[in-house]
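Troubleshooting entry. The earlier prediction with pyridoxal-5'-phosphate gave an output that would not parse, so I re-checked the input for stray whitespace and re-submitted. Clean input:
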Amino acid sequence: MSVIDLRSDTVTQPSAGMLDAMASAPTGDDVYGEDPTVNRLEAELAGRLGFAAALFVPTGTMSNLLGLMAHCERGDEYIVGQQAHTYKYEGGGAAVLGSIQPQPLEVQADGSLDLAHVAAAIKPDDFHFARTRLLALENTMQGKVLPLDYLAQARRFTQEHGLALHLDGARLYNAAIKLNVDARQITQYFDSVSVCLSKGLGAPIGSVLCGSAELIGKARRLRKMVGGGMRQAGILAAAGLYALEHQVQRLADDHANAQRLAEGLRAAGYEVEPVQTNMVYVQMGERAEAIKAFADERGVKLSAAPRLRMVTHMDVSGAQIDQVIATFVDFSRH
Ligand SMILES: *Cc1c(COP(=O)(O)O)cnc(C)c1O
């Protein structure tokens, strides 16, 4: 029985084509700047997203950390969603390692931060306060796509207030595919963008931070400091290049599968939140542990959470989605 793992889009295995690309990648020592495949990936993504420079790093957590630390000095502050990955799910790295104070704000129903709330949170220039330096947004945010006109407003807003604007674009390409726009339509509003290659794009490892040459120069120094300077990393960068070339458009299949899952579960009487991209949230309440155990016995891997998140990805087919729906139907009857 093949296992259907819906816990995250990070669980994908590298495809045969990706493994071939990795095996034949030319490599060099990337700390010396001599890995041609890493250099190609950095140039490729910077070009695609409209930035002067880019930096390949092992994880999205490191990419966000380096971005925040490159923008902010010790005693600066960044404004961020209370539910944002950079604030909630990265071990408090910006504060711990960067001495950057987070100012979290409640995320709105559409995944955005209310700019009036952001304005109210900006500290006056006064030695009592941390210096507010940066606004960090996330797109997609729990599967939701931030509207382009909101991003334009956020750009104008941060310019007016002298703030930098960072995007945690772990799932940037899910947002671009959903909006049916070039990813640059999204990234044009930001001073820096972090993109994960290891989520829906299906690479085993890797994220890329994009920004100005100056910002990325600073981030490169910080990457060495936090132990992220890798050597023949071209083997990994080749997977990222392969993903950009071959596994972006197919994200639409994941979105279709997520819709199919949501509709099937609703038809079976479950309370399912509206789906935009590859994430399906179902209210399981006190049945969270029970459905996890029930599904596990039937080859479906789930998280256990009252608000259960299921994530579609390239290793889950449409037929397997029907199997998952059948599992939930059986669960509601057992
Ligand atoms: C996964 C993720 C990251 C970083 O992930 P790593 O596991 O460190 O690669 C950052 N932001 C968001 C929104 C994510 O989903």
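This one parsed fine. The domain at 250-333 is CATH 3.90.1150.10 (Aspartate Aminotransferase, domain 1).
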